[in-house]
Design a protein that fits this description.
The complex is a heterodimer. Chain A is mostly helical. Chain A has a domain of about 180 residues: MetI-like fold (Orthogonal Bundle), CATH 1.10.3720.10. Chain A has 14 helices and no strands. Chain B is built from 16 helices and 18 strands. The termini of chain B are far apart. The chains are: A mainly alpha, B alpha+beta.
Chain lengths: ~300, ~525
């Protein structure tokens, strides 16, 4: 197990570095300067700023300089938010996204899996087609529709929850649900599909022949192997959901990390973009590793093979 | 089994992130939606209005803007002007203190202004200090700081020698770049001095907290000279970019004031008119189109004129902007005392066709393919589509739309890689020069390639003129060249600012031309 983890971690290092380099170069190649504003900046001031932030010289020189800083643990300063380090910005905004994202992730799995299992248990019946339609609806509703509509209904119609803001528990409810809903559908469909496949396998037929009740059959025997595809999906999902979403953060005024992925690029804030991409990349690698570990736990064949 | 292993870790993560992610305190006395996250709170580096508003609460210049937008004495109690109008001597109030207890001296102002000018600071607004003699040469690296004519002969006297007589200088120095900073703090902490734990200021409010993308929290400064007149103890300025979100926060009572028209969804603007909490006011800002005069077809003044005369500006403000914006017949909006901007041409479909014919394109035949460049936004797009249709209808020319995201758009503007480009300009101080200077030859903000010696000459004459009325007359003549003769630009409309607050609950907020709303004057109605 330990050697597996070590191997995986070591093989991740070049991946992380390549992602970081690519991200840096893409933002630097994009036309436009990070220092440009509607009010024209005189070329001397611009040159001074480029020098100050280590963006002078050829692209290769800039990349080497940046790479060296990152290896020393310095992610650089934001070019847009002057006086703030990228580490500080991530340090302030990532915990908020992690909090919101972990609630949404739990909701997605906690609701998606039972709903999927329930649908599979009632395969071909009305419940199944109803749940299937609901799942389809949730996963195909874009958040930029879902979020404002939920604000309209729950904040202004029913006056149950605050429409936006950050700092209290009640302000977490709407953004967490809106962030989770599309993934609830995906999780439900993956569980249902996995279960249906498993329920048709020989060991289930044997168990059924032995007189195991249908409920026990589905939730105790079949669910474990059936969630394998879901576990593989949940790794990238966790990284995705924990790093926030631009739409959710803007609609609900959540001061998370998600908006920097987009606004950082628009501002050409190269160090900030590279910093948040690094966070995403690390989370993705981490959760894929966890997913693989869980798969091994769930599937004795894989455990035996490794 | 899995749940037993995974669940405790997951719950632990929740607990930890909740503690670090949520930090709800008691609600501030006043919650303001201020626009996007401030890029900096260092007055020398500020270039945006939303940062300027917070800086006006954190620092106090020699003069400041009041709730009407008028410039009033602040850190300076009085000043005198030499007979030639070029030397200003300011006397500071006695007993001024920084928030850490240090005395505020004239030397602090000298240091702060020189710091903003220092090329090493790379201040985006250093240009606004160029009225001071020697400032431009120092900023350009041609002279030393000592050659800038700012003197602090004693702790309470600041003497400034200007290049030219600048009658609006006392009001100009209310501007953010002229705000003082605490030298010891800046020198000790470098770029990090604006963090709440290091920060020192001299304004009515202290910087208590600054959470990225969340809020800037301000607390009344007990060392401020008029602390007894500061009406609120705690103000939170929220960072909200999306208009519908800001409006939702306001509607649900989580925010008390919307400080920017950009924070009101444009779709519902017409419905808000007439509501008692909706406060529109003309702004010192203009939305206009630029023509690239360095290449055909807009190198021909007749074509520019034809394109200008073809436009029905009323249609733009009535169909698209819908906030009660006045159409722009000049670049400078009305409202500067003593200055009546020239009235530019209105729509004239016959003349514009004739002009295009004279330019060699009868009924638009043979007219080259041109495009309108704009940065991506719904409003810009709607206006571009409208103008595209109007030019097609009146001139018979085919205009394409070219939509670019912000940084790319700015680059296209700077490199003159466009035919027609949308633009806007917000006046920095209440004088026509803040608009007209943009189009002087070689200015970074010219962005049209247009140059006219007689225009430059009039601006120079105006700036050298000690008599205020004559000076404004010269500026008026210059604007006539810009608007009536050369037409490198097509002004479309002047912006309207909109504040939202309940007038039964709050006062001290007055809509004004420069959109200045000092936080220290805001308070509960009647208290």
């Amino acid at each position: 197990m330990l050697s597996f983890v070590t191997r995986r971690l070591l093989s991740s290092i070049p991946v992380v570095l390549a992602v970081l380099a690519l991200c840096f170069l893409l933002v630097r190649i994009a036309p436009g300067s990070p220092f440009a504003t509607e009010r024209a900046l005189d070329p001397r001031t611009k040159a001074m700023l480029e020098e100050k932030f280590g963006l002078s010289g050829s692209l290769a020189e800039q990349l080497v300089r940046y790479g060296g800083n990152v290896l020393r643990g310095d992610l650089g300063d934001s070019l847009k938010f002057r006086g703030r380090t990228v580490a500080e910005i991530i340090g302030q905004s990532l915990p908020r996204s992690l909090l919101l994202g972990s609630i949404s992730f739990s909701l997605a799995l906690g609701l998606g899996v039972p709903l999927g299992a329930w649908a599979a248990a009632h395969y071909g019946r009305k419940t199944d087609s109803f749940l299937n339609s609901v799942a389809l609806l949730t996963l195909s509703t874009p958040t930029f529709v879902l979020a404002p509509v939920s604000v309209l209904v729950f904040a202004f119609g029913l006056k149950l929850l605050p429409p936006a803001g950050w700092g209290t528990l009640s302000q977490l409810v709407l953004p967490a649900i809106c962030l989770a809903i599309p993934f609830i559908g995906v999780c439900a469909r993956l569980t249902r599909g996995g279960l249906l496949e498993t329920l048709g396998s020989d060991f289930i037929r044997t168990a059924r022949a032995k007189g195991v009740t249908e409920t026990k059959l589905v939730y105790l025997h079949a669910l474990r192997p059936a969630v394998l595809p879901l576990v593989a999906y949940a790794g990238p999902l966790a990284a995705n959901i924990l790093t926030g979403s631009l739409v959710i953060e803007e609609v609900f005024a959540v001061p998370g990390i998600g908006q920097f992925f987009v606004n950082g690029v628009i501002n050409r804030d190269v160090f900030l973009v590279s910093g948040v991409v690094l966070v995403y990349c690390l989370l993705l690698l981490l959760f894929n590793l966890i997913a693989d570990w869980l798969t091994a736990l769930l599937d004795p064949r894989i455990r035996a093979a490794s | 089994m899995i749940f037993r292993r995974v669940l405790p870790g997951w719950l632990g993560l929740w607990g930890l992130t909740f503690l670090s992610g949520c930090n709800s305190g008691p609600r501030a006395d006043l919650v303001i939606c201020n626009g996007a996250e401030p890029q900096t709170l260092d007055p020398a580096l500020v270039s945006g209005q939303l940062e300027g508003r917070i800086c006006a609460a954190l620092y106090e210049g020699l003069t400041r803007r009041d709730a009407r937008g008028k410039s009033i004495p602040a850190a300076a109690e009085s000043w005198s002007v030499s007979p030639d109008g070029k030397t200003y001597t300011f006397t500071l109030r006695p007993g001024l203190k920084w928030s850490n207890g240090d005395p505020v001296t004239a030397a602090d102002f000298r240091y702060s202004w020189l710091r903003a000018l220092d090329p090493v600071s790379a201040s985006p607004y250093a240009e606004i200090l160029f009225f001071i003699r020697g400032a431009e040469d120092f900023q350009a690296g041609r002279a030393s700081a000592e050659s800038v004519e700012i003197a602090a002969p004693d702790d309470r006297t600041l003497r400034v020698r200007l290049k030219n007589p600048v009658p609006f200088f006392p009001s100009l120095i209310s501007f953010t770049t002229y705000l003082p900073v605490h030298r010891a703090t800046v020198e000790k902490y470098g770029d990090r001095w604006t963090r709440p734990e290091h920060w020192v200021g001299n304004g009515p409010y202290l910087l208590k907290a600054w959470q990225v993308n969340d809020r800037v929290s301000l607390q009344k400064n007990p060392r401020y000279h008029s602390a007894d007149r500061v009406r609120l103890n705690r103000i939170d300025a929220l960072a909200v970019t999306r208009a519908s979100t800001a409006f939702n926060l306001y509607s649900s009572g989580q925010a008390d004031v919307l400080l920017d028209k950009g924070l009101i969804p444009s779709l519902i603007l017409p419905k808000l008119r007439g509501r008692p909490d909706f406060h529109p006011a003309p702004l010192f800002a203009t939305y206009f189109y630029r023509f690239n005069v360095t290449r055909p077809p807009f190198d021909n003044p007749k074509v520019r004129r034809a394109f200008s005369l073809a436009i029905d500006k009323e249609a733009v403000v009535e169909k698209i902007t819908r906030g009660g914006e006045p159409i722009a017949l000049s670049l400078t909006p009305r409202g500067v005392p003593g200055y009546l901007p020239p009235s530019g041409p209105v729509q004239d479909t016959l003349t514009c066709k004739a002009l295009l014919r004279e330019a060699g394109y009868p009924n638009g035949e043979g007219f080259p393919r041109i495009s309108i460049l704009y940065n991506k936004s719904e409003l810009n797009e709607q206006i571009a589509v409208e103008l595209q249709a109007q030019w097609k209808r009146t001139l018979g020319v085919q205009v394409e739309l070219r939509n670019q995201e912000w940084a790319t758009y700015l680059r296209s503007l700077d490199t003159l890689d466009f035919d027609i480009a949308r633009s806007s300009w917000v006046g920095d101080y209440d004088d026509p020069l803040t608009f007209l200077d943009c189009f002087a030859t070689g200015r970074g903000n010219n962005r049209t390639g247009w140059s006219d010696p007689s225009y430059d000459n009039l601006l120079a004459k105006a700036q050298a003129e000690p008599n205020a009325a004559v000076r404004l007359r010269f500026l008026g003549q210059a604007e006539e060249i810009l608007i009536l003769q050369a037409m490198p630009i097509l002004p479309l409309y002047h912006f309207v600012g909109c504040l939202m607050f309940d007038p039964k609950k709050w006062d001290g907020l007055l809509p004004n031309l420069l959109d200045e709303h000092p936080f220290s004057e805001i308070g509960p109605k009647g208290k």
